[in-house]
């Protein structure tokens, strides 16, 4: 019988569930819109319903435990969601304890961005690395950092709020209230906002055509740039410069073996990478300039695979040393097999 983890990715818009095996493969998957405004127990009911759905797909699987990724801030060691801004009424919720009582299984809780970092480290673009920084560039900017084969949690699990490091003192105000956050200038939302300001409804520009004369999104900019639109290419060049500045800071802070970029804007990685690398070369100290920046490999399932890795290891086992095969594996290449993770 197959030993699996029951994995959940709890977002403010969508709740996703999967059965994941020890090689990072999704054996079953289901999702529903999150009842984000209806309180904790409404969402717990959805989690139970999705668990039944995916377990029916693989009835002979042995579920070793439950892993769940949720929006921060949260305390992974205590198993408490401290105050998820996208979930109404979620303040100091002992989610791990609630789910352990419901399922009668061990539960691992992790910040959703850290979970994605774990997934890419164990089975994706960072496999074989001793350390990495994962950055997701989408509606916002988030991420997670792994150092010496352990994820960095910091006090109460609040470390590596990558999107809210200050990289300028001008620009639009971030939703957190500050000016100059990495997220405020380099997220997909910020990219779309700049594109919208440079165009007008009905002006016939490719960006407005792609957006159907609504507000332009970051994805619209990537699509227009891929078609050769000069304005979109200019916007992406500016986006890549901001990303390069932010990534330079991450290199200096964490000294990772690799930076892995995910999120919706990573769909344009091939259009961004040259300027990102040039910015890093011009700003990073020489010792940091050879660190590769690579696109994520696991897509939207990285978080599910990451929280599964919290469960699919022997209880109490530390992260094993890198094997010779892992050390030969270059970060960013196609994964070649399983890897266990530690919830450090």
Please provide a written account of the structure:
With 344 residues, the chain is an alpha/beta fold. The chain has two domains: 3-122 and 300-328, Nucleotidyltransferase, domain 5, CATH 3.30.420.40; 128-296, Nucleotidyltransferase, domain 5 (2-Layer Sandwich), CATH 3.30.420.40. The chain has eleven helices and 13 strands. It has helices at residues 40-57, 95-103, 112-123, 182-186, 188-198, 206-210, 218-226, 230-254, 269-283, 302-311, 324-328; strands spanning 3-10, 14-21, 26-33, 62-70, 74-75, 80-83, 91-93, 107-111, 132-137, 141-147, 150-151, 258-262, 293-295. Strands 3-2-1-4-8 form a five-stranded mixed sheet, with helices on both faces. Strands 11-10-9-12-13 form a five-stranded mixed sheet, with helices on both faces. Strand 10 (141-147) and strand 11 (150-151) form a beta hairpin. It is globular and about 55 Å long. The relative contact order is 0.16. Mean pLDDT is 88; it is low at 314-330 and 332-344.
What is the structural class? alpha/beta
Helix percent reads: 25-40%
Question: How many alpha or pi helices?
Answer: 11
Please tell me the overall pLDDT.
88
Radius of gyration over C-alpha positions, nearest whole angstrom: 20 Å
The assigned CATH architecture of the largest domain is: 2-Layer Sandwich
Specify the overall morphology.
Answer: globular
Order of helices and strands: EEEHEEEEHEHEEEHHHHHEHEHH
Strand numbers in spatial order across the main sheet: 3-2-1-4-8
- Largest sheet features: 5 strands, mixed
User: Roughly what fraction of the amino acids lie in strands?
Assistant: 15-25%
| Strand elements, count | 13
The name of the CATH topology of the largest domain is: Nucleotidyltransferase, domain 5
Top-tier CATH class of the largest domain: Alpha Beta
Give the CA-CA distance, first to last residue: 29 Å
Give the low-confidence spans. 314-330, 332-344
Total tally of structural domains: 2
- What is the CATH homology-level superfamily of the largest domain? ATPase, nucleotide binding domain
């Amino acid at each position: 019988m197959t030993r699996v983890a029951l994995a959940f990715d709890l977002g403010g818009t969508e709740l996703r569930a999967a059965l994941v095996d020890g090689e990072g493969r999704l054996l079953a998957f289901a999702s529903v819109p999150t009842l984000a405004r209806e309180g904790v127990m409404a969402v717990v009911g959805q989690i139970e319903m999705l668990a039944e759905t995916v377990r029916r797909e693989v009835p002979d699987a042995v579920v070793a435990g439950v892993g769940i990724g949720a929006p921060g801030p949260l305390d992974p060691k205590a198993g408490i969601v401290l105050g998820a801004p996208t979930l109404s009424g979620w303040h100091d919720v002992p989610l791990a304890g609630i789910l352990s009582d419901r399922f009668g299984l061990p539960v691992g809780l992790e910040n959703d961005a850290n979970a994605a970092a774990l997934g890419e480290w164990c089975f994706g673009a960072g496999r074989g690395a001793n350390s990495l920084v994962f950055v997701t560039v989408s509606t916002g900017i988030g991420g997670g950092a792994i150092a010496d084969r352990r994820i960095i949690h910091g006090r109460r699990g609040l470390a590596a709020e990558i999107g809210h490091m200050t990289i300028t003192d001008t620009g639009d105000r971030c939703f957190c209230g500050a000016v100059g956050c990495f997220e405020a200038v380099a997220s997909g939302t910020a990219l779309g906002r700049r594109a919208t300001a440079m165009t007008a409804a009905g002006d016939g520009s490719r960006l407005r055509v792609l957006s159907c004369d609504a507000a332009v999104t970051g994805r619209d900019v990537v699509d227009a740039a891929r078609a050769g639109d000069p304005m979109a290419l200019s916007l992406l060049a500016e986006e890549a410069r901001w990303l390069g500045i932010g990534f330079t800071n991450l290199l200096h802070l964490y000294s990772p073996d690799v930076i892995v970029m995910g999120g919706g804007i990573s769909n344009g990685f091939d259009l961004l990478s040259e300027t990102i690398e040039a910015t890093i070369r011009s700003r990073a100290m020489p010792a940091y300039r050879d660190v590769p920046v690579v696109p994520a490999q696991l897509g939207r399932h990285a978080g599910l695979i990451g929280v599964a890795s919290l469960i699919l290891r022997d209880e109490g086992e530390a992260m094993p040393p890198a094997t010779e095969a892992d050390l030969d594996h270059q970060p960013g290449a196609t994964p070649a097999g399983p890897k266990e993770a530690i919830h450090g």
